[in-house]
Automatic annotation (TrEMBL):
Its cofactor is pyridoxal 5'-phosphate. This is Histidinol-phosphate aminotransferase. It comes from Streptomyces cinnamoneus. The modification N6-(pyridoxal phosphate)lysine is found at residue 234. Its EC number is 2.6.1.9. Homodimer.
Amino acid sequence: TGTGTPSPWDELPVRDELRGKSPYGAPQLDVPVRLNTNENPYPLPEPLVARIAERVAEAARHLNRYPDRDAVELRTELAAYLTRTTGYEVTAARVWAANGSNEVLQQLLQTFGGPGRTAVGFEPSYSMHALISRGTGTGWISGPRHDDFTIDVEAAERVIAERRPDVVFVCSPNNPTGTAVEAETVLRLYEAAQAAKPSMVVVDEAYGEFSHRPSLLPLLEGRPHLVVSRTMSKAFGAAGLRLGYLAAHPAVVDAVQLVRLPYHLSAVTQATALAALEHTDTLLGYVEQLKTERDRIVTELRAMGCEVTDSDANFVQFGRFDDSHTAWQAILDHGVLVRDNGVPGWLRVTAGTPEENDAFLDAVRAIRKESN
Ligand code: PMP
């Protein structure tokens, strides 16, 4: 402040590693077209809304009681969903659910990371991997990628061998680049991680359903230190629900019980998620439409002369800009909110409805004309 008077914030005895840091914060701006947080643009269909009301009403009759602490019915249905859509059989004993996959990741770091331990991720990647590491007292190691945003496997193997992290994050498809990771890459990183420590390898498949490639879930076979994390926020169009889950060896599910809060998953959440799972086929139909729109965005941006990273997610990384923040603002001035993830030269747009995507493509066309 220049007055020499410490602010109340300076005086708060917060942990040293949190001082001077910023919280996660995608702008929530009121603009006509919001394509900045990788949400699904389609509201839940009315029959599902009615079913949620029904199941929540039933749950409400028992809200004087704590919910099922082990969420057995929900985990059974999630396991059935994974088995049906990936062809790899998982059971409830191999599935765990929490309030968004962010909480799943936090529970994993509380269990396998923590003070004196480290986690590695290959950046640019999902910023919360580093933030949740910090929040749980886990040291963060930033690993590299190639210029095309694929993981540099040799460099990754070296980082793992030298730094011996306790947790290795592999985000596939990767946020914010959209890059899918080859099964072969995961296997090599898993081998490196086992040789170094052994450590846990967490595959974050939040966008798995949007990929051109099959899920990495079958890699769980015979690999007790591998975890696949998923969410209902994207493919199920239920970001507001806050429901994430993992699949792993049953021992991993047992281990996270040590850190989960009792009754962490409310009865309302469990009832709503179960209703949504009854409508899986309809919701996966929207996913197909979004994949088509995602591919159209890639094609049209390239036709305009933009550089675009191949995408297996419900968003597209595009550029390049001399100054991505100026480009972000220019697109916003045309009424379209995209995301500046701090990757120099690049921005990210979420696939929306066809109309929203047209508005976005028109905005990019316009700013390219303005800057010529
Ligand atoms: N992983 C990745 C890669 C993400 O992009 C997100 C959401 N942006 C999450 C996890 C967390 O999602 P949620 O907590 O809504 O499941």
